Amino acid sequence: MSYDALFEPITIGNMELKNRLAVAPMNVGYSAPDGYPSDHYLAHYATRARGGFGLITTTAAMVNPYDWAGSEGMNPLKFTDYRYYRFWSEIIKAIHYYDCKMAIQLSPGWGRQGHPNVGRPDVPAAAPSCVPLCMDLRDYFKKSKGNITQLSKRVPGALEAMDIDGLINMTDEEYFSEDFQQFLQDTLSKMNPETYHFIWGDVPRELTIPEIKDLEDRMAVQAKDAFNLEFDAVEIHSPHGYLIHQFLSPKMNKRHDEYGGSLENRARFLINIIKKIREKVGPDKPVWCRLSGDELQPGGISHDEQCQVAAMAKDAGVNAINVSQGSYEAMGSAFAPDGEGDFTRWAAGFKKATNGLPILVPNFLTPACAEKAIKEQSVDIIQLGRQSLADPFWPVKVKTGREKEIIKCIRCQQCFSEFGASHFLECAVNPVTGREKYFPELWLAGTKFGDRLKKALKKMEGFPQI
User: Fold this and answer.
1) Are strands 205-206 and 320-324 parallel, antiparallel or unpaired?
2) What ranges in 51-115 are assigned the alpha helix state H?
3) Using one digit for the tens of pLDDT, what is the confidence trace for 17-66?
4) CA distance 435 to 155
5) Beta strands 233-237; 101-107: pairing state
6) Does residue 331 sit in the same domain as residue 234?
7) Can you give the CATH number for the domain in which 105 is found?
8) CB 328 within 8 A of CB 366
9) Per-residue model confidence as pLDDT tens digits over 212-271
10) Which run of H or E residues covers position 296?
11) What range does the domain containing 379 cover?
12) Are 365 and 330 in a shared domain?
């Protein structure tokens, strides 16, 4: 079967992509200490560039240098100043050898979804308002009963002891009772301390207006520096409950100043960031934002409002919209649905609201579903997240008629559940994932990058030892 639509070129701003296939931004946790991009990242991205993807978007790279950024727990990448640039430059050069473009996802912080700073546990994360994260596990387990097998392996019998079906059917009075909440906290803290912070966040402090404006300015400065380093595009990290989304959401933003209240005020942080980036980088560079199609929580931001935000973002200067959904409090089926194509339901609304901007959508497994989304569902660029972890060579296998050889993601959530693990991310169906740097033949042998290195080595052969 032909999948020609997946391999048509597309232009965003002044960037042309060779095909419609992209690696979705994912926090795989391969950072070196203090957020430096490691050799793991270079090998990880280079393998997928060689695998035929036209675009790779990095995981969120923090521009926020402060102790209250709230992002320490997941070992995030950083892009705060010139100390990081030469490390990123090496990765960009490698990716470009494969005729693949690279976007950096810039983030101003985690906010209320963040974790305490290891060096300064006394410093709370800062957010739009003093509203702590509190995930309702009834909702999580109801949506994710098929996705929790890996979690139970950390403490055998722990989840069984909780009686999942009984938990799902608890009343508010039963669930929020002091005794049961203490039981939950004790049980989950045994599984992994990080798990606790995904469910019961600390109370954040409210950001001041000068701090907000400082973050807007930092996003613009780092966007300009990203393009100077030859990143091909910049994505603004504004989905699924992180700091920018927190400003957008009436559930999380209780401010009464120019950054709270009306949708226009709640969107001010994002829109100011877009405008300030445009002032720094000019009109043609590809800049887009990632938005949750819907927060999927009572009192959260709806799809209708997010479409209005997308229209404001387009007027402010973005070239595309990248689709996500949910937040930590709607993590169950929102972040990592079991099937494929779930995110396409938001594409048409964003397409209409932005008068036809390119729409990037994740959550695909098969080329048939991806081709259909391009042809029928207002999707312009297919993003593979977990599937790109399972098989980095998905695009070239599809293009060369080797579809049956694709290593298919089985949606076991091992990669997802290892956010808080004390080892690099692993994949249940591909043992090489996370270890690509030990197998340079995957991303060097038979490539322009590898050939160039071979020629350089040959010139150095035969010299006597002195």
Assistant:
1) unpaired
2) 85-96
3) 999 999 999 988 888 888 999 999 999 999 999 999 999 999 999 999 99
4) 26
5) parallel
6) yes
7) 3.20.20.70
8) no
9) 999 999 999 999 999 999 999 999 999 999 999 999 999 999 999 999 999 999 999 999
10) none
11) 4-117+205-448
12) yes
